Structure to design on (724 residues):
């Protein structure tokens, strides 16, 4: 809850003091009277004695305190903040092309993020913004907050763009370096029918556009040339707790892919990590990656864990996505690997491989998918001149359920409480 | 009297049990008496007085005492009963007054105390009576025993004031004990001053038919009117020592005020029906105000 005048909440001190005084332990005032009999008749059953002699504050005072609280809160004017009236979804392209330098001195990604935030704030106010990018958790900020540039700059580049077409509607912004083609353009890479967009733009950036075994293809001003492949293309970071069998295979995999296996994450290793192997147990046994268990129907085991569970391979629509352990008795399965951009998560424990070739096939496929793209390799389309920075908000999202305006009801509650307290006081 | 929880000892800050007549009060008393005497003389000229009996109409009989005028002897009654009785004339009866001051412990409640207020008005009756030549019996209670002092023409008022200043509120017995005193039958005017909380109005009427004039003055302390009260109180009856704890606000206070109003209305009704002059006052009211009402001026 937000308040238009939060400083007036200090008035809540008043009912607080009243309550504190009312509940402060007090002994009844002692006094003489010649009309004790009248008091007895007047009190009827209300006189207290023995352990019930403690007097609490009278009801009218409690009701008045409720009124004071309502009055103080009403003065502070509680209301639903503007930023919660709607939420915008920004799909962030983090492919290597977004990491190219912009003529402003920043990266294209930084320029696009800031342009999106500024445009939303200018046109829609302090709305809620949900930033989404492949391989990363969603971030929710307000338009008045800084854009999450630092968070995205620290993450490795994504191999693929966001699924723009799946989110083509009101309240969505596509964030990339170039503007999407509108519907009807036949050669469009992405077409939008309802979503807005933010394009960082940017001048042409020459560089490598393709990688060969020995030489890489360089592009500049429309001309291609072959150059010697750069060294130090990346590392495979192997976490300390990664099972030995998996770690051994990862080292072999790194050498075959021209990568350098590193035992942990020394300084600098993270920045150019092509893939990281980390140990992580799925919380509560939930699958880390959805997929279909492909335990071979004839009972062939491709791997074993020290607890006797067999290892199978999960595959999704795009291929193998996880290795899964199977309880021989119950058949219950639990994923022991999970894949995300730049990360391969594996289950802890001692892995054994009765069928090493099958296990190597599964892990190799996973590691290939986990490899982050080399940020130095950007296709020609991404290196071309993208034009100026542009932004266009599409249709606004459906408004979120707005908060009930509380000022008027609170004022009514306060007035009713004061009136009731006055009536109770007179009775 | 504010009494402590353990000792029950009173402090003089909230209750006053004694009587004190300041020089200022004595001057006001003198002024009041003078004004009243002038008023009485004017009214007597018109044949209407409330301070003395009138004519030779006899209204009662009493046993013969040495020195009584033989012309007043009821010879026929003497012949029938063989006992001497003299006729009591209206004027004679009216000139014998009884001033009864309730000095029960409850009269010490409040500041100023109810006893102080009653004593001030008693002083006014004493002063007026002595100037008009009445014979006055002043009755009060001391340690539960009825005490009396007779004042006749020529007695210095200061003697009466000294007696009144010696009064102290205490004991359980109050106005009811004073009204049971037989010597009241010899007086034509009864002035009863107190809080009357131990008295029922009908008790006042037991001897009303034999008395020419009855005046009743009642005082209640501010807290007994229910004013200025809030929160919890532990009341203590100074006469019985009973205690009672109650919240003195809200519905209880309203019901208390209703009970008190009913009690006072009963007094007013009964007194009005029997031509008894009655006034109820809050302690602290200037004595002139109460006296004006009780003197009927």
């Amino acid at each position: 809850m937000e308040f238009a005048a939060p400083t007036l909440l200090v008035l809540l001190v008043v009912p607080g003091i009243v309550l504190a005084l009312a509940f402060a332990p007090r002994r009844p005032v002692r006094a003489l009277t010649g009309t004790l009999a009248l008091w007895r008749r007047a009190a009827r059953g209300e006189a207290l004695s023995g352990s019930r002699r403690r007097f609490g504050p009278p009801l009218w005072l409690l009701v008045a305190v409720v009124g004071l609280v309502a009055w103080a809160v009403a003065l502070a004017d509680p209301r639903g903040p503007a930023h919660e009236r709607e939420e915008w979804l920004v799909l962030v392209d983090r492919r290597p092309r977004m990491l190219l330098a912009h003529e402003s001195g920043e990266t294209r990604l930084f320029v696009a993020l800031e342009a999106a935030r500024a445009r939303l704030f200018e046109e829609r106010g302090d709305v809620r913004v949900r930033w989404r990018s492949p391989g990363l958790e969603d971030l929710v900020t307000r338009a008045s907050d800084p854009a999450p540039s630092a968070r995205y700059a620290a993450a490795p580049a994504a191999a693929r763009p966001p699924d723009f077409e799946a989110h083509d509607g009101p309240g969505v912004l596509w964030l990339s370096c170039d503007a999407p083609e509108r519907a009807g353009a036949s050669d469009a890479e992405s077409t939008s029918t309802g979503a807005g967009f933010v394009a960082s733009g940017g001048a042409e950036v020459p560089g490598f556009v393709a990688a060969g075994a020995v030489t890489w293809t360089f592009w500049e001003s429309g001309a291609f040339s072959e150059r010697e492949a750069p060294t130090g293309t990346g590392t495979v970071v192997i976490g300390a707790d990664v099972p030995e069998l998996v770690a051994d295979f990862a080292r072999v995999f790194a050498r075959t892919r021209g990568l350098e296996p590193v035992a942990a994450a020394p300084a600098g290793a993270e920045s150019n990590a092509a893939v990281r192997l980390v140990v992580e147990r799925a919380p509560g046994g939930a699958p880390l990656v959805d997929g279909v268990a492909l335990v071979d129907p004839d009972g062939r085991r491709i791997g074993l864990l020290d607890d006797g569970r067999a290892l199978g391979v999960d595959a999704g629509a795009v291929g193998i996505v996880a290795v899964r352990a199977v309880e021989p008795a119950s058949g219950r399965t639990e994923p022991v690997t999970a894949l995300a951009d730049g990360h391969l998560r594996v289950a802890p424990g001692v892995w054994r491989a009765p069928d090493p070739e099958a296990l190597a096939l599964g892990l190799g496929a996973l590691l290939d998918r986990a490899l982050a793209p080399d940020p130095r390799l950007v296709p020609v389309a991404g290196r071309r001149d993208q034009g100026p920075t542009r932004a266009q908000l599409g249709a606004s999202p459906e408004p979120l359920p707005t908060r009930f305006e509380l000022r008027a009801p609170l004022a009514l509650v306060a007035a009713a409480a004061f009136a009731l307290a006055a009536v109770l006081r007179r009775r | 009297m504010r009494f402590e929880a353990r000792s029950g000892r009173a402090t003089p800050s909230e209750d006053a049990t004694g009587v004190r007549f300041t020089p200022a009060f004595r001057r006001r008393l003198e002024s009041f008496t003078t004004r009243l005497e002038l008023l009485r003389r004017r009214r007597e000229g018109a044949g209407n007085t409330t301070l003395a009996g009138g004519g030779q109409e006899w209204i009662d009989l009493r046993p013969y005492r040495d020195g009584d005028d033989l012309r007043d002897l009821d010879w026929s009654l003497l012949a029938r009963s063989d006992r001497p009785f003299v006729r009591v004339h209206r004027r004679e009866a009216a000139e014998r007054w009884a001033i009864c001051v309730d000095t029960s412990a409850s009269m010490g409640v409040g500041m100023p105390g109810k006893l102080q207020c009653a004593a001030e008005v008693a002083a006014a009756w004493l002063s007026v009576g002595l100037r008009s030549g009445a014979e006055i019996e002043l009755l009060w209670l001391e340690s539960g025993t009825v005490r009396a002092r007779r004042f006749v023409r020529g007695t210095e008022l200061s003697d009466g004031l000294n007696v009144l200043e010696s009064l102290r509120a205490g004991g359980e017995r109050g106005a009811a004990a004073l009204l049971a005193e037989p010597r009241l039958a010899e007086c034509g005017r009864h002035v009863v001053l107190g809080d009357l909380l131990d008295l029922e109005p009908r008790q006042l009427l037991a001897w009303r038919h034999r008395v020419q004039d009855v005046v009743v003055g009642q005082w209640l302390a501010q807290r007994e009117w229910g004013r200025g009260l809030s929160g919890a109180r532990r009341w203590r009856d100074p006469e019985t020592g009973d205690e009672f704890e109650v919240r003195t606000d809200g519905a209880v206070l309203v019901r208390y005020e209703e009970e008190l109003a009913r009690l006072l209305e009963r007094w007013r009704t009964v007194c009005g029906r029997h031509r008894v002059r009655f006034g109820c006052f809050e302690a602290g009211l200037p004595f002139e105000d109460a006296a004006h009402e009780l003197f009927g001026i």
Q: What stands out?
A: Residues 48-53, 183-188, 281-301, 316-320 of chain A have pLDDT under 50 and may be disordered. Residues 407-426 of chain A form the longest helix (20 residues). Residues 235-370 of chain A form one domain. Chain A touches chain B at residues 26-36, 38-44, 46-49, 53, 55, 58-60, 424-427 (CB under 8 Å).
